[in-house]
Write a structure and sequence with these properties.
about 350 residues, alpha+beta, six-stranded mixed barrel, flat
Length: about 350
């Protein structure tokens, strides 16, 4: 029921206190305005970040490298290899995993078509990869389960691959490209949602069925050889099949071991263009040593250039050394001048 007296009282109060009413109304308006601005900025920031984050938000990536520390009798420097049995083990024992998308990668693979060639990254994938990273399939299709079962030699290529290997008027769908000399039929073309360097890498990638990659390029044999190398590395400390697989470091000279700055199990790296590497030992060549001596300023007048000297070095007992004086330099200790 409309209460005339109550609304009249409100009207009279507002009319009587105009400044207070205006400030109160402005405060409410400003609060609502700032709330809208902050919510908009937060949503905009979230959308901007998620737009460039082109993977499933709850995805986890696992890959292997060399071991850096000993473990249960195994020496460092081993490769841990993942194989198809690990896929079955993960699916059987970890119920929380919704999607598993195994992958093999061949970086810098030689890709040819007719008289054109280039180097691109080739990924062996499963159809489940689309659940991890959605793709913009502009033409054709992606890998399907039938491709996996039948180990079909088909390829889904990025936009940049099309630009390099095909003429502008050509239709890549149904054509063949050669990956390391093996023909693969193009069944799809994709683009990327990403920006910057990630986008450049994306559109220069070729996807083929993982089973076809393993079958055609004999990756199972390579896995077996790698396992044999690891076993030999554990038993012998070095692999005879590959000169690069070894945890033995041979000194480049004979001499006396002065220092070993690293401890057993420490992580070490070899030298390269970006890093000097890890010093694992300091060795002195005892056949070619330099001894430095000093002469007090009160004795320097007794020396001449070219003078023959008979020297004894305390660390080497009574052994005599014959030498000649050469141009000298002056050094200063507090209160003393000495000459080299």
């Amino acid at each position: 029921m409309f209460d005339y007296d109550k609304w009249q009282e409100i009207y009279l109060t507002i009319r009587k206190h105009k400044l207070r009413t205006t400030l109160t109304a402005f405060g409410v308006f400003w609060g609502i305005f700032m709330l809208v601005v902050l919510l908009g900025a937060g949503n905009g920031l979230e959308n901007g970040v998620m737009r460039d984050f082109d993977f499933a938000k709850n995805s986890v990536f696992v890959w292997t490298q060399r071991t850096s520390i000993p473990y249960k009798g195994f020496k460092p420097g081993r490769f841990i290899n993942l194989n198809n049995d690990d896929i079955i083990a993960i699916r059987s024992n970890i119920n929380e995993v919704d999607v598993i998308a195994p992958r093999n990668i061949m970086d810098g693979s030689s890709i040819k078509r007719k008289d054109k060639s280039a180097s691109f990254t080739v990924c062996g994938d499963y159809p489940d990869y689309l659940d991890v990273k959605p793709m913009l399939i502009s033409r054709g299709r992606f890998i399907n389960n039938l491709d996996i079962r039948e180990k079909r030699k088909i390829a889904v290529i990025g936009r940049r691959v099309v630009e390099v290997l095909f003429d502008p008027e050509e239709d890549p769908i149904g054509e063949y490209i050669r990956i390391k000399g093996v023909h693969f039929k193009v069944v799809g073309i994709f683009d990327t949602r990403q920006k910057g360097e990630y986008a450049i890498y994306d559109v220069q990638t070729i996807y083929i069925p993982n089973t076809a990659m393993q079958h055609v390029f004999n990756l199972r044999k390579q896995e077996m050889e790698s396992a044999e190398n690891n076993l030999e590395l554990v038993r012998e400390g070095a692999s005879k099949k590959s000169g690069t697989v070894s945890n033995l470091v041979t000194a480049t000279m004979n001499g006396m071991l002065l220092e070993v700055p690293v401890k057993e199990g420490s992580f070490v790296i070899e030298s390269n263009t970006f890093n000097d590497g890890t010093t694992i030992a300091t060795i002195a060549n005892m056949s070619d040593m330099i001894f430095e001596g000093s002469v007090d300023e009160t004795e320097i007048g007794k020396l001449n250039l070219g003078m023959e000297l008979n020297l004894k070095i305390g660390a080497l007992g009574e052994r005599n050394f014959y030498a000649n004086t050469s141009p000298y330099s002056i050094g200063i200790f507090p209160g003393i001048n000495y000459y080299h």
